[in-house]
Amino acid sequence: MTLMWSILTSLLLLLQSCTGDKSCEIWSSAGDVVQRGSTFRVYCTFRLKCKPSMYSGHKPRHQDHQTYNSSTIYLDVKNLTEDFTYSCDCGHDSSNTENKPDSCGLDIFVGYPPDQPTNLSCINHVSEQNLSSAVVCSWASGRKTYIKNEQKLWVRTFTHDALEGSEFFGLTAKGSPIVRAAFTVKSSVQVISIQASVTNPLGSAETQEKNYSLSDIMMPPPPVLHQVDCSSRSCSIKMKENVPTHHLDINYKEENEEHWTLNPNLTVINVSTHVQSLQPYRTYHFRVRSKFRTGLWSDWSKTVSKRTQEEAPARALDVWYAVHRNSLRIYWKKLDISVAQGHILDYIITVYNQSLTLNASSDKQNISVPFCSNCDITVSARNSRGALLLLKSPSIPLEPKLFLCQ
Ligand SMILES: *[C@@H]1O[C@H](CO)[C@@H](O)[C@H](O)[C@H]1NC(C)=O
Ligand SMILES: *[C@@H]1O[C@H](CO)[C@@H](O)[C@H](O)[C@H]1NC(C)=O
Ligand SMILES: *[C@@H]1O[C@H](CO)[C@@H](O)[C@H](O)[C@H]1NC(C)=O
Ligand SMILES: *[C@@H]1O[C@H](CO)[C@@H](O)[C@H](O)[C@H]1NC(C)=O
Ligand SMILES: *[C@@H]1O[C@H](CO)[C@@H](O)[C@H](O)[C@H]1NC(C)=O
Ligand SMILES: *[C@@H]1O[C@H](CO)[C@@H](O)[C@H](O)[C@H]1NC(C)=O
Ligand SMILES: *[C@@H]1O[C@H](CO)[C@@H](O)[C@H](O)[C@H]1NC(C)=O
Ligand SMILES: *[C@@H]1O[C@H](CO)[C@@H](O)[C@H](O)[C@H]1NC(C)=O
Ligand SMILES: *[C@@H]1O[C@H](CO)[C@@H](O)[C@H](O)[C@H]1NC(C)=O
Ligand SMILES: *[C@@H]1O[C@H](CO)[C@@H](O)[C@H](O)[C@H]1NC(C)=O
To answer: Dihedral of CA 362/364/365/367: which sign?
Structure first.
């Protein structure tokens, strides 16, 4: 919010040096920072005898003031909900505008005292090879205050060797509604004690002191998933870790699935591992996270997607036929993607008794063959891995003879 008075006064300062003192002094009974919804008085005391007037607003509008005593006027302000400007003036004396003393003004800022910070927690980020660590603490600041807050994190460090003593320091924290502060600690530090505080002109609040053992809050950086190789039913996963860790979780899910499946607690051999029991010709998403022997799980790595390889179709087609004078028209239903197990290239139609084999392209769903009686006909879908062999399957062969015997 731009406040006119601050701008005006900086301009008027120049004039003031020529024209002398201000004509009045202005103040509020509640100070210049007030709580939202406050009711209070704004007073102006005049140094000279004049016809006083009072204004308010960013585009100053004349207000009907009350008289306090012979030199002081006031205005009752009710339920102020936003920053506002007030000013007083010695009424216009048209005879002598040049030497008219300056008016006086006041910016009132409206806000709330700070809420008590909640959810204070810290993470000890262990990064890179030399195991240096940065502790990041965060908390929720609660309701917006609309005025400037001073947010601090107070830290006391303890080493296992009492002789090394403890250190105590305060850090400026930033952010809203989540506030953060970060610091580094020496490797000898084992325990930290922290407390968050916030202060503004309307009040202050602080959390309880909280103790952390650094080993309980250490977190590795997320592993980098850098290679996924899949056969039709399993994928091998290679990852890179900046810091060696002890536990690894792999999450995977099929494309379009909502929930991840957890492959938990894997023993990682040379940062490479396998996910088994997958389905052919599906796209899977993978992500991993890691953990030291103690402490917190890292964030999840970036997701890597990979499609498993094809397998020959898993199920026979639904096939039926109709008789047309001198021919048979064979019909079939397309395979569902879940049993096609690959991209269907074409259909192979075999009429055994006639030693006849036909191909139909993948967009076809019927074909005409010469009429035959008591013959066996099979239709199989073919993908890059082949077709389901149906010679032994009794479900598909057709027996047009049944028709013809009538
Ligand atoms: C009027 O009231 C103001 C504020 O209390 C005080 O400073 C001032 O001296 C008073 N003036 C007279 C003439 O009583
Ligand atoms: C104060 O002003 C706000 C906004 O104009 C209004 O919602 C609220 O009811 C008022 N409160 C009182 C006590 O008048
Ligand atoms: C504090 O943490 C709890 C549990 O993690 C969460 O449900 C809640 O929303 C958090 N509160 C704030 C203000 O962030
Ligand atoms: C070890 O950590 C310190 C502090 O973070 C850093 O300045 C330094 O470059 C790191 N050294 C190596 C070899 O990574
Ligand atoms: C935190 O640890 C310090 C040092 O051991 C101890 O003096 C203090 O009482 C502990 N505070 C809490 C809240 O446990
Ligand atoms: C994971 O591994 C840890 C340590 O090896 C073990 O204590 C824990 O029981 C394991 N959890 C599961 C779910 O296997
Ligand atoms: C780990 O991987 C590296 C590089 O891929 C290889 O040289 C090494 O032999 C592997 N170690 C084990 C124990 O498999
Ligand atoms: C056609 O072939 C099937 C199986 O190969 C056989 O059972 C059937 O008798 C044959 N029909 C004729 C007319 O040869
Ligand atoms: C059907 O397609 C397969 C694969 O392209 C091919 O080997 C075969 O000869 C074709 N058969 C006919 C009858 O066209
Ligand atoms: C046979 O399949 C073709 C497409 O390949 C289609 O246009 C046609 O309508 C089908 N015939 C019958 C009788 O269903």
So the answer is: negative
Kindly tell me if the per-residue pLDDT of 331 is higher than 80.
yes
For residue 220, pLDDT over 70 is answered with yes
Looking from the CA of residue 367, the nearest atom of ligand 10 is 1
Residue having the nearest C-alpha atom to atom 8 of ligand 4:
130
Q: Which strands sit side by side in the sheet containing 356-361, from one edge to the other? A: 356-361, 346-351, 377-383, 386-387
Indicate the SS3 state at residue 348. Answer: strand
Please tell me which residue, 164 or 217, carries the higher pLDDT value: 217
Helices (H), 216-349: 337-340
What is the pTM for the complete model shown? Answer: 0.71
Measured from the CB, is residue 326 less than 6 Å from ligand 4? no
- Please report the domains of the chain, with CATH numbers, ordered by start residue: 2-111 (2.60.40.10), 118-218 (2.60.40.10), 221-307 (2.60.40.10), 319-403 (2.60.40.10)
Q: Identify whether the C-beta of residue 387 lies closer than 8 Å to the C-beta of residue 353.
A: no
Per DSSP, which regions of 83-188 are E strands? 84-90, 104-111, 118-127, 132-140, 150-159, 167-172, 178-184
